[in-house]
Amino acid sequence: MLKIFPKGTKKLPFNKGNAKSFLYLCTQIIYIGMAKVLKSIAIVFVAIAICYAAGYGCGRVMKSMMTKNIEYPATARENVVDNYFGTEVADPYRWLEDDNSEATAQWVAEQNKVTFDYLRSLPAREKIKSRLEQLWDYPTQSAPSKHGEWYYISRNSGLQNQSVIYRKRDLASAEEEIFLDPNSLSEDGTVALNTATFSKDGKLFAYSLASAGSDWVEIFVMDAESKTLLPDHIKWVKFSGASWAPDGKGFYYSAYDAPKEGEALYSAQNTNQKVYYHRIGTAQSEDRLIYADPSRPLHYFHGGESEDGRWIFVTGSAGTSGTELLYKRKGEKRFKTLFEGFEYDYMVLDCYDDTALVMTNNDAPNYRLVSVDLNTRVCHDLIPQTDNPLEGVGTVGEYLFAFYLIDAQNKVLQYDRKGNLIREVELPAIGSVGGFDSRREDKDTYYAVANYTTPGNIYHYDPETGVSTLYHASEVKFDGEQYTTSQIFFTSKDGTRVPMFVSHKKGLKLNGKNPCYLYGYGGFQINLTPSFSTTAAMFMEQGGVYCVVNLRGGTEYGEQWHKAGMLENKQNVFDDFIAAAEHLIAEGYTSSEKLAIAGGSNGGLLVGACMTQRPELYAVALPAVGVMDMLRYHLFTIGHGWVVEYGSSENEEQFNYLYKYSPLHNLREGVSYPATLVTTADHDDRVVPAHSFKFAATLQHCHAGDAPVLIRIDTNAGHGAGKPTAKRIEEAADVYAFIFENTNTKYKTIK
Prior knowledge:
Largest sheet: 8 strands, mixed
Distance between the termini: 50 Å
CATH class of the largest domain: Mainly Beta
Strand order of the largest sheet: 32-33-35-34-36-37-38-39
CATH topology of the largest domain: Methylamine Dehydrogenase, Chain H
C-alpha cells in the first residue's frame, strides 16, 4: 500500500495509523504521542524519536555554594556585525558556527569540562541514575507484523541500547530467532535502525542505518529468508527510506548529491533533493532519476508507486507545511500536477483501482479524507471534516480508521471504504493511540494506548467484531494507580483558552512548595498528546508536578490553532507558555522558586524566548537542541525548510518580528537568568549545535546572577533519534540532578 509522507524536514508526532510496522508500535509503547518523528515514504517505518518532555524536571534557583565558584571558559568575542534593513546586529561568536575548527573543538572541550565537573559533583546524581535504570529496565515489544511466511517482532529487554528484531513462523510457538540486532553494529550503540521495509512478498528487507544521531542514513538490503546481506548500498540519503515497487525488483528513495570535498557534513545547507529508483543487484551509480527540480533547489521531494504498480506519485514540499502532489501513470514520461502547492497539505494514504485516498486540509482546517479519481481528477469527500481535528487515517483490510483529537486526546472511528461509519472503537483507556494500520490482505490489526501514568499496552483488534484483546502488557516497575492526570484550562494573554495536562501523586497539597516541570513545544503542527515516560515517573515519585501544555502552533484544534502560533503570530506561543507558568503558580501547584521549563528543538526556542522575556518567573531553564539564532537558522542544513513556519530575516517585515523574540539576540547584560542547562550534540545536523554554542556563550557573558548557566554537549549523538538507552539515562540523570540541586529538592530513596 502506498503511503507518501512529504514533510521530510518536519518533526511530526506519530501520524496515527500511518506506519505499517512492528517497530512503530514498539516505539509507541515508550514515546506515543510525544515523539518528534520524520514521516518517510516507507511502508514499514521505524518511528524512533527523542521525547524531551519525557526527561526532565523543575525548580527555582536556591544558590548552592559551588555555584558561586564556577569559572566559565573565556570565549573570544569578535567584531562581526550584520546590517538588516538598517539595523546593525552584532554576532561576536560567529566563529563558533565552524564545527570543524580546532578553536570550536577546544571551546567544546573546555565547556564540557566545567559542566561535567559540576554535574558529577551533585549529591543526588548517582541516586537518580540508579532509580532511572530501575524504572527503565522493563521489556517492551511491538505487535507482530507478517511478511512472507514469517511474523516479525521488535523487542527491547529494557536497558538494551537499541531494540532487536526477532521472527517466528508461528505466533503460538515460543521458538523465535534474531533477524537483525542493531546493537551488534557498534560498540556504544550509536548506530541505529532508522527505517525498515519489506518487499510485498516479504523476500527482501531494506533498512537504513543512522550513525551518531545524524539525519544522514545509508540503505542496505537483505535477503530475508537467508538473512544474507546483498551488495546493494545507497548513500547520502536524508529524510527517506526505501519505498518498494510492488514487483519487489527495486525501490524508490530520496537523496542529495554527495558533499563536495571540504564541505561541512553536519552543517552545510542541503539542496537539490532528488527521487531515484534503485534496481536490486545494481550499483547506486546506475539508479534511475525519477524526479528533480533544479529550479527549486530548497524543496523536498519523495516518491513511490501505488500497490498495483499502475501509478507513480511524487510529493513536493517547500518546508514543513504545505505540499504539492504530482502523479503519472507508470510508463508515461512526464508528471502531472494532481494538487498544486503549497498552501495546503496533501498526504496520499492509499491507492487502488485508479483511486487515491488523500488526507488534506484544503477547505478543511480540521482535515478531511478525500477519494480522487486519477483519470478525471474528480474529488469526493470520503470522511468529511468534523468539529474535531482529524490527526491520521489507518487502513486495515476493507476498513478505514480515523484518529480524531478531542482536547489533545484520541478517539478512533472505524469506517468502511465507502466512508460509512461502522463504529467508534471502544478503547481500553484514555490517552494517545497508535496503530490500526495493516496490509490490504490482513484481517486484523494491533494498536497501543498510553498516557502519563501508564505505558502503552498493545491490543489485538478484530475489525469485524470490534473486539479488542490485550496482546502485551507493560511490566514497568511503577504503580500508576498512585498518580493522577487532570486536564486543566487557563487563559492566555489575548484571552485564548489553552489546555494543559497536569500529573502528580494523588493527594498532592497545592501549597506552592512542589517542584514542577513544565514542558511545551508549540509549532510545526505537532500535537502533544499523553505519553508515558520513565523519567517523568521518577520525578513524580519525588513529589514533582509534571505538566505538558498544548500551545498554539500545534494542530490540537486544527490548522487554525497552528496558524495562530506561526510567522507573525509566534509570540502567541510564548505568551501561552508564560501564562501556563503563571497559572500553575497562582493555583498553588508550584512557585517561581520551584518551577522549571523545558523543551527540545522548536521547544528549545520556546524555552530560550521565555527565559529572556520573563527570567524571574522560573528557577530552571532547560533548552535542548534549540533553534536560538532566528536570523541565521535558515543557512544551515535543512533550516531553510522552516521558513514557512518562522519567516526569514531576509524579508524586512519578518526580520522585525524574528529579531524581537530571537533568544540569542534578546539576552541582556546585567540580568540574572534562571539556572540554565543548555543541551546539544556534536552530530546534530537538524538544528546545528552552533545555535546552542552561541546562546550559551552569550548567556555566560550577560548573566549577572549566581545560578549556574552551563552547556552540556553530547558526543556521537545528534538531534535525538536513535540515541542509545545508555546515553538517554546519562543525560536524564544529569538534567534531573541539575534540577534537584537548583530547586533545593532533596532526593528521597524509593524502596
